[in-house]
Specification:
The complex is a heterodimer of chains A (about 170) and B (about 180). The longest helix of chain A is centred in the middle third of the chain and has 34 residues, at about 60-95. Chain A has eight helices and no strands. In chain A, about 75% of the residues lie in helices and about 0% in strands. Chain A folds into two domains: about 1-130, no CATH class; about 135-175, no CATH class. Chain B is mostly helical and about 180 residues long. In chain B, helix 1 (about 10-25) crosses helix 2 (about 30-40) and helix 1 packs across helix 4. Classes of the chains: A mainly alpha (about 170), B mainly alpha (about 180). At the A-B interface, helix 1, helix 2, helix 3, helix 4 and helix 6 of A face helix 1, helix 3, helix 4, helix 5 and helix 6 of B.
Chain lengths: ~170, ~180
């Protein structure tokens, strides 16, 4: 029944996933690691790293977590649970969007949710650092990445990921 | 809806078009979706794209999956709304599952551990950069940044459940936004 529970957890999360799957990292960790003890800290951060290094939408980290928790059916259940509810809702609502777009309450939600999403992404970053038990070298890499990524917007993140991987391979971190 | 039926992409085209989007992006594929839809295949104009993106970013959930549903529905109805997100996700899911198999097999090796540590460190930095960029894009910062701080305290420090934090946060921050919108 772990697959069913995983599916339901993801359905619930999809309703608050403002800012996409990236904003969900802290909650994924809370549910999967702290609450259910399905994964440990190290596995969680390693799955996050794999998702970073693979092509595709950010939601894939959910696929990986599902797979690690309950195999192939877990991967499918988690991905579907995350994508299906909003897909159905948007299918039903899209033709009516014109009618509520631009309304005061719609703008208020868009404005109000933005600062929360920033907080979620920031929390996700601190949580990865904590769960991966960063030492000085890893903090250095994270800091340099932050600066480079902000400074050179055109720089493809894949280069940074490759550089980080190489540094890690040489066991500097 | 300006396009005639002869210029509507087929189910096949939707599947492969969104496959190419899914496979080309790392850490978010939305810019690639725009490039494919507006520039390469010209299924929609830039203004059209922005209008459709509105609802995708308004509703929670993976934005680009939402976008695939919207575009698929627009050109091929229900079948399109199913096929487009499937195209987006199938390739990347297969790749990530392949990586998962490798991880199961070799993840315990010290080299793999080191590699993933390095990537996690970079990933953490990318998240900080993303948060910074998103934070800078917020309007009326003195008014709304405190809500960012409260979210970090509730989520990262207190580890409260996110659904509750989001509902409370939306009522507070959305309420403030509603009030400022009325003052104009």
């Amino acid at each position: 029944m772990i697959v069913f529970e995983l599916f339901l957890d993801c359905v619930l999360l999809s309703f608050v996933a403002f800012g996409g799957a990236t904003a969900l990292l802290p909650e994924l960790h809370r549910v999967v690691v702290s609450h259910h003890h399905w994964l440990d800290d190290t596995t969680f951060t390693q799955l996050y790293a794999i998702a970073q290094a693979a092509p595709g939408p950010n939601v894939l980290v959910v696929t990986l977590i599902g797979w690690k928790v309950a195999g192939l059916s877990g991967a499918l259940a988690a991905t579907l649970g995350m994508c299906l509810p909003m897909s159905v809702l948007i299918y039903l609502l899209v033709d009516r969007w014109e009618r509520f777009s631009g309304r005061r309450w719609q703008q208020a939600i868009s404005l109000g949710v933005a600062p929360l999403a920033v907080g979620l992404v920031f929390s996700g970053a601190t949580l990865i650092a904590q769960a991966a038990d960063f030492r000085l070298g890893a903090w250095g890499v994270a800091l340099v990445t932050t600066v480079l990524s902000l400074r050179y917007q055109a720089l493809h993140p894949l280069w940074l990921i490759a550089a980080g991987g190489l540094l890690g391979l040489s066991s500097w971190l | 809806m300006t396009s005639g039926s002869e210029s509507s992409p087929s189910l096949n085209a939707l599947f492969w078009g969104f496959s190419s989007v899914g496979l080309s992006g790392f850490g978010g594929v939305l810019p690639f979706a725009r490039r494919m839809l507006v520039e390469e295949r010209q299924w929609m104009t830039a203004a059209d794209f922005n209008a459709q993106l509105g609802i995708c970013q308004f509703l929670p959930g993976p934005n680009v999956v939402n976008l695939a549903v919207v575009v698929g529905k627009r050109y091929q109805g229900l079948p399109g709304a199913i096929v487009a997100p499937l195209g987006l996700l199938t390739g990347p899911v297969l790749i990530v599952l392949l990586l998962a198999l490798l991880y199961d097999r070799y993840g315990g090796l010290p080299q793999a551990q080191g590699l993933l540590r390095g990537i996690a460190a970079v990933g953490c930095g990318l998240l900080f950069a993303m948060a910074w960029r998103m934070g800078m894009a917020i309007r009326q910062k003195p008014l709304f940044w405190p809500f960012t701080g409260l979210t970090v305290i509730a989520i990262a420090l207190l580890r409260w459940p996110m659904p509750l934090v989001m509902i409370a946060g939306l009522l507070l921050a959305g309420g403030v936004a509603y009030w400022t919108l009325g003052r104009k």
